[in-house]
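Much of our argument rests on the idea that a fold can be written as discrete symbols. This step matters because it turns folding into a mapping between discrete strings. The record that follows shows the chain in one-letter code together with its fold in token form.
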Amino acid sequence: MKNVKCGRCVKCGREYEAVPNLTNCECGGILDIIYDYDYIKTTLTKEKLAARDDRSMWRYRELLPVEETTPNTPLRVGWSPLYEADRLAKELGIAKLWVKDDGQNPTASLKDRASAMAVAKAQEAGAKVIACSSTGNAASSLAGNAAAAGLKTYIFVPSRAPKGKVAQLMTFGATVVSVQGSYEDTFELSKQAIDKWGWYNRNAAINPYLSEGKKTVGLEIMEQLNWEVPDYIAISVGDGCTIAGLWKGLKDLYAIGFIDKLPRLISAQAEGCCPLNRAIANNEDWYPMEENTLADSIAVGVPRNADKALMAIRESNGIVVNVSDEEIMAAQKLLGRTCGVFGEPAGVTGTAGIKKLCEQGKLPKDAKIVSVVTGNGLKDVANAIKACGEPISIPSDMDLLLKAFAEKGICIEEAE
């Protein structure tokens, strides 16, 4: 790979050749993929990018750690819509807001970006089997992307994983192991199994290429905004890989001169599981927390990408905000009502964070903000119904309909 120099440990700085099956440093640190930006500047321009027909994450190949001969993965991952959310911005009292709906990826979450990268690197390594642990979305994204590429998957999920996500896994033909315990228990069992059988490792805490897939959400946001940098980008945070990837993509664009400044990141976590935000707020090392939130995709009490995530928040002079489950469910309704975007609880946590910061007066009125919705609401319909309530249920009787409307205070505007 001419565009890649090496993998470098974020803890000790040791460098490794960027081979397809690259994992952690000997010291236990996570590796960062280091690029040759001078070379990339000679091969990629904004004009060249704008002329491309490929509307997927692979349009950014010069900024991705794949061989020139590696084919694009079969599913169309990336280039999700970026909506102008003017009604929501007005309601929150800010100048401009955009919503990046990554729930429109093939398996309905941002995690498809990492899984597509994992499939590409597994193929480069000649692997036939990929495995991972996940709270749900990473698992279903891996199973779907691997199935399309003809690779076998072994997936480990905690028993609390929503049925919608487990149904995806089973439909995609994965061998699914539901672990009776926490995400930490699930991760440890998957690690032991991967080590024992030599499967390709899709775990984001170990495979440094996955953040490189996730960073394409940041590349897309900036291209879709015509390279005009917003003041803030808000995103939900669990394991830490997504916010780290987002920041990496933004820094890549800055390094090659595509943008002239960097935005501040807003790290949104659930109050019931916020070890990374707590570490930032208290200016201390992170330590484990219980996984006490309905936002299962970010319920990670022992974040495995803590180093990169904390670095991203600090380098960007970021803001941390923790939201309750009630605030998360309120954000589900708010996004749906004002934008027509259906996000799962973890997917809307970034928006919940923006709303809370606005209410606290911590964001300027003239702010321009992007909120990334990381997963579709169909992933967890039980909590969506809990947030919005049950529908009106009556027999086919007009009098009963009028009565039901009156009881709910629904006023009908008659057509002119």
Q: What stands out?
A: The CA atoms of residues 59 and 218 lie 13 Å apart. The chain has a mean pLDDT of 94. The radius of gyration is 21 Å.
